[in-house]
């Protein structure tokens, strides 16, 4: 049955839309911009969920490029109920692309997961008696969709991991007494040719399930935690260079954070303590060329740490990337570092730099550090990003497909302006985004 969601084509008037100045008023973002060629015309589009300042209108914007200018027509998918959080994803079924996103129903403890064509036609929806914080994840190899669910509100408990096929039918689910606010990660960690489903519950249960949804030997693991704090997203990386992947999961306490590192057998091979609160997914790199990668961690007070698996600092880290104190309209502190650290070779020397978006007194800036902790560039300003902890509100991609990378973000210091800045990266580079490796030439 056709749902009451209207696909509109609106013409924006009296707005300067020039790629050089990189501005387009879009509203208040609720998720990180997604960038991909959704209509197969050889040009990427920007897909972003926004609300108007009153919160009354919720919509997904599809923004196209015309050469190096934003197109002055914005296609909009109007969302009648619920707010899209975290990310909008897509999947391909029978060579046709579909948008995949969730919507938390306002004033209830329910949510819906939606599938739409890239032209705005309804495909299917799935309703749950839960809400979500992390976007549903689609995996092209398993051809399944993974949904992390939790009960909303302080003191609420209970959660579920649900797995759907590409038609929206549930093929497996598991309920928990605690919520699941972490992302689901789909990776072949034991190199058996089949991917595992990895996630953790808010009360510290780390699950690793095989393709039959049975626990891998050595799992689940029960992690210590402060009951008044939450678990956060985690990383799955090959730390030892042997193709087997390790899981780096953090556990928050009153004034510090632990990062536990487990191999594919469930053995704890690393324990890292950071004497600051940490929220974002760590990255890894072999700083000392000994064959074992160190862990790059950012903290809420604006520091970048580099630590070995025993928790020892790699000199000269940490460095202070974020500075200044600001409050948002709700009285919350503006984040000093937004999003996970990114590795990118910006100068073509064959070694990556560490990129973070950090508060610089009164604005967020893209800050680039070499492996020795020296800042090499901080010339790109992002204004102020949305302070909600549910997304990072910027993306790095080759937006106009000119082989150069672009920084796409929404400056929320005013009415919500979409902006683009070019990033110089002269050689073939690799960006490790959250559980997804995107290669550029």
TrEMBL record:
Signal sequence region: 1-20
Alphabetic keyword roster: Membrane, Signal, Transmembrane, Transmembrane helix
UniProt-annotated location(s): Membrane
Membrane topology: Single-pass membrane protein
Domain of life assignment: Bacteria
Keyword Isomerase tagged: no
Annotated Gene Ontology cellular component terms: membrane
Stated name of the protein: VCBS repeat-containing protein
């Amino acid at each position: 049955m056709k749902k009451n969601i209207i696909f509109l084509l609106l013409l924006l008037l009296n707005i300067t839309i020039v790629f050089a100045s990189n501005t387009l008023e879009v509203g208040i973002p609720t998720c990180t911009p997604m960038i991909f060629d959704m209509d197969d015309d050889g040009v990427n589009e920007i897909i972003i969920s926004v609300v108007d300042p009153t919160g009354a209108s919720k919509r997904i914007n599809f923004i196209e490029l015309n050469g190096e200018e934003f197109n002055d027509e914005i296609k909009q998918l109007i969302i009648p109920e619920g707010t899209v959080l975290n990310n909008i994803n897509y999947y391909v079924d029978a060579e046709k692309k579909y948008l995949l996103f969730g919507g938390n129903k306002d004033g209830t403890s329910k949510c819906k997961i939606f599938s739409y064509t890239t032209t705005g036609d309804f495909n299917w929806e799935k309703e749950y008696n839960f809400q979500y914080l992390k976007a549903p994840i689609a995996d092209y190899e398993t051809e399944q969709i993974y949904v992390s669910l939790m009960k909303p509100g302080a003191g609420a408990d209970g959660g579920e991991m649900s797995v759907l096929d590409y038609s929206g039918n549930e093929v497996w689910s598991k309920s928990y007494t605690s919520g699941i606010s972490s992302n689901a990660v789909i990776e072949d960690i034991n190199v058996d040719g089949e991917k595992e489903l990895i996630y953790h519950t808010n009360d510290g249960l780390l699950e690793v399930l095989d393709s039959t949804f049975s626990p891998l030997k050595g799992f689940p693991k029960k992690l210590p935690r402060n009951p008044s704090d939450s678990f956060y997203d985690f990383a799955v990386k090959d730390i030892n260079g042997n193709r087997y992947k390790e899981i780096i999961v953090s556990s928050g306490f009153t004034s510090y954070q632990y990062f536990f590192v487990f191999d594919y057998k469930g053995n704890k091979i690393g324990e890292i303590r950071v004497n600051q609160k940490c929220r974002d997914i760590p990255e890894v790199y072999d700083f000392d060329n000994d064959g074992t990668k160190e862990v790059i961690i950012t903290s809420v007070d604006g520091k970048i740490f580099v630590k070995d698996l025993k928790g020892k600092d790699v000199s000269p880290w940490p460095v202070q990337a974020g500075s200044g104190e600001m409050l948002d309209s709700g009285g919350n502190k503006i984040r000093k570092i937004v999003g996970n650290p990114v590795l990118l070779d910006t100068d073509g020397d064959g070694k990556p730099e560490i990129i973070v978006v950090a508060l610089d007194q009164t604005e967020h800036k893209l800050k680039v550090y070499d492996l020795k902790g020296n800042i090499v560039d901080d010339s790109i300003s992002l204004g102020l990003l949305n302070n909600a902890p549910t997304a990072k509100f910027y993306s790095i991609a080759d937006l106009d497909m000119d082989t150069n990378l672009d920084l796409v973000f929404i400056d929320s210091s005013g009415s919500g302006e979409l902006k683009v800045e070019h990033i110089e990266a002269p050689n073939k580079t690799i960006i490790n985004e959250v559980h997804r490796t995107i290669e550029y030439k």
